[in-house]
Amino acid sequence: MAVGRALFSTSENRAAANRRTQAAIRKHTGNAVRQTGKQPAPSLERAKLDPSKAPTFVLPETFVIPPLSRFPKQFKPLMSYLWGIIRVKSLDFLLARQYRFSSMPGWRQKPLLSLKKAPLIAQTKALHRQMNEAIASGDAEMLEKIVDSYLYVPLAVNIEQRPKGRTCTWELVRYNKEPRIVSHKIFPLQGTKDKLLWQVTVSIASRQRVVEHERGRVVPGSEKELDLVENVVIGTMISNETWATQNAWKIISTVQPMTPEKWEREQETVKLLAEAGAGSS
């Protein structure tokens, strides 16, 4: 199956993602790293009052494993890369289970935090479908409800710049593979004591069709049908006191597989996040 570009591009390369994440980390940790005062950033204060204002960026080390052909060929880089995969996946697994265990009201009571895969995959599939339908129909109001603000702006601009009278229809022809979770992260929100960022990345392999219309007629040659693989990142914020979601799940971005080259660049973001955490502690 050929992996095509998304019909409606929601992806960003890792370099751009790292720059955006680094900027978001600096913004949402305020002056914690640079100053001795521990006053939280205004954006964090807004997040406490309104969960919809929570910082939204793809969490560092969102590790989507690439095909084996992209693995390092030399022994030492290969071992380092494999260790990175093992470390990240193990830490993600343990942290998620730790929070799930912490959400148990009592030893024999069911955890309040559910990590079941099926509902998370269903949520991602629904948002993915709604997003593409909203883009195709030009429904910016619906789009704003289901995608992160950083993602919404360029998509809304794209809709606004369409020629007058030009519309699209989008169709999900089929899933080429069963959608699956490829990254699952729960991470404390810097500067708060009771908020956690929850992000799930689902790989969606599908065949999609788009047709453009102008004044009610199909534009000749506009029909596109592609086989795509999209790693869709959705996110929300939860309270570690009530374990309830504080805002609706939204699509944050789509990400590319974490190649060895991208993994090396990612470490700069990880270092910055560690410094921010140390500075705000």
From TrEMBL:
Where does it reside?
Mitochondrion
**Could you state a single Gene Ontology molecular function term?**
ribosome binding
Picking any one GO biological process from the record gives: protein insertion into mitochondrial inner membrane from matrix
Cellular-component GO terms for this entry: mitochondrial inner membrane
UniProt keywords, alphabetically: Mitochondrion, Transit peptide
Q: Which domain of life is it from?
A: Eukaryota
Q: Tell me, what's a Pfam family for it?
A: MBA1
For region Disordered, the annotated ranges are 27-48
Asked if Secreted is a keyword of the record, the answer is: no
Q: What is its main location?
A: mitochondrion
* Keyword Transmembrane helix appears in the UniProt entry: no
UniProt-recorded name of the protein = Uncharacterized protein B13D15.130
Could you tell me which species this protein originates from? Answer: Neurospora crassa
Gene symbol of the encoding locus: B13D15.130
